[in-house]
Design brief:
alpha+beta, six-stranded antiparallel β-sheet, 4 helices
Length: 165
């Protein structure tokens, strides 16, 4: 069995791609109990390689990042060898970094390579990297002192009430 989790900010097109893939019946091609091998890693990341994404190795992690380095896929070699572990083997992300993503998908070792490849294709073509950062928490600045405010409608006793249209 395999599992995949998504953060709340994961873009709808990425989730739609996942649902379409599963509805097509293509998401069931990994045999349970087998370790992730080089063939499945190559198949899962082929769309990224074809799109010219940079490939790096950092300790136990193999990462593919887009040219602007604001999206990527990370493969955890250690987690892949421990299929019963709760560690995510695959992380598909977009944002400032893999450690501080705007959104992310985390997948288990038995997630089918075809499912990961479809998600990687979606990411590589840019739909998944379109993310909106959090709204600014900075307080709104008051208008400049010389700014003109709109005139208020006169009111008070002695003026007839007007109906707005």
């Amino acid at each position: 069995m395999w599992h995949l989790t998504a953060t709340g900010a994961t873009p709808a097109p990425v989730l739609q791609e996942l649902l379409n893939h599963l509805a097509d019946g293509d998401g069931w091609d990994t045999a349970v109990g087998l370790a992730v091998d080089g063939k499945s890693v190559t198949a899962a990341t082929k769309p990224l390689v074809e799109a010219g994404w940079k490939h790096t190795v950092d300790g136990r992690f193999i990462r593919w990042t887009n040219p602007s380095q604001d999206a990527g896929v990370q493969f955890d070699v250690f987690a892949a060898q421990k299929p019963s572990s709760a560690l995510a083997t695959w992380t598909i992300w977009a944002g400032p970094s893999v450690d501080q993503p705007t959104w992310a998908l985390h997948a288990s070792p038995h997630t089918p390579a075809s499912t990961l490849a479809d998600l990687a294709t979606e990411l590589a073509h840019g739909t998944g990297t379109r993310h909106h950062g959090p709204r600014s928490s900075a307080p709104r600045q008051p208008p400049p002192a010389n700014a003109k405010l709109p005139a208020a409608a006169p009111t008070g006793p002695g003026l007839p009430a007007r109906r707005l249209r």
